[in-house]
Amino acid sequence: MKGGKLIIFSAPSGSGKTTIVRHLLGIEELNLAFSVSATSRPKRGKEKQGIHYYFLSLSDFKNNIKSDKFLEWEEVYRDNFYGTLKSEVERLWAEGKNVIFDIDVAGGLRIKKKFPDQTLAVFVKPPSIDELKIRLKKRSTESDDKINMRIAKASVELATAPQFDAVIKNYDLDIALKEAEELVAEFINRPTEAN
């Protein structure tokens, strides 16, 4: 696999990474395309196949793992898999795009390890664990048990921040968006050996 640049945004759930990624996708000169992840979890709310995720059955997901069709994958929660299909990245590179990801910390670091020169890995840090809990509750998409699982996972994920190329502290969304724009624009304009 060879192609354009890879921009990863990882963070605990509720940190604002999805909002930042959506903002960046709206900036035409960055030439970004979103890598839609695959998951074995069921659809939530108004989520659509191929737009929010590629929803696969648990057995299909496991078969794709066996067939080496993933760039990275993770069992995030029990029988709840997420991953990046190689075919998705290849499709976007074939369109001449730089690929942007909104993925979990472990997956983001795996991609960075596979493509160190082509990848910018950004960690989005929330103001605090308490603020994270407030944001997750406001979403009203998950039970208190699920929220507590995400909060427990967030503490572990926060410890990985130093392994990323950059950390954006999302205390003020406007500042975080500007910082993300500058980081990504600078990275895209920097030549790499792969290009």
| Cα end-to-end separation | 12 Å
Number of helices: 7
Task: Please identify, by name, the CATH architecture.
Answer: 3-Layer(aba) Sandwich
Residue share in β-strands: 15-25%
What fraction, in percent, of the residue positions are helical? Answer: 40-55%
SS elements, strand count: 9
The class by helix and strand makeup works out as alpha/beta
Key traits:
Rossmann fold; 5-stranded parallel β-sheet; 9 strands; single chain; alpha/beta; 4-stranded mixed β-sheet; 22% strand
Descriptive notes:
The chain has 195 residues and is of the alpha/beta class. It has a single domain, classed as Rossmann fold. Helix content is 41%, strand content 22%. The protein has seven helices and nine strands. The strands form two sheets. A five-stranded parallel beta sheet has the order 2-7-1-8-9, sandwiched between helices. Helix 5 (129-139) packs antiparallel against helix 6. The longest helix has 17 residues, at 173-189. The chain is globular, with a radius of gyration of 16 Å. The model has no long low-confidence stretch (mean pLDDT 90).
Give me a quick take on this structure.
By secondary structure, this protein is an alpha/beta fold. Helix content is 41%, strand content 22%.
Reconstruct the topology from this structure.
Blueprint (H helix, E strand, L loop, with lengths): L5 E5 L6 H9 L6 E3 L3 E2 L14 E2 L2 H9 L3 E8 L2 E6 H9 L3 E5 L2 H10 L4 E7 L3 H11 L4 H15 L7 E4 L3 H17 L6
Parallel strand pairs: 1-7, 1-8, 2-7, 3-4, 8-9
Antiparallel strand pairs: 3-6, 5-6
Helix pairs in contact: 5-6
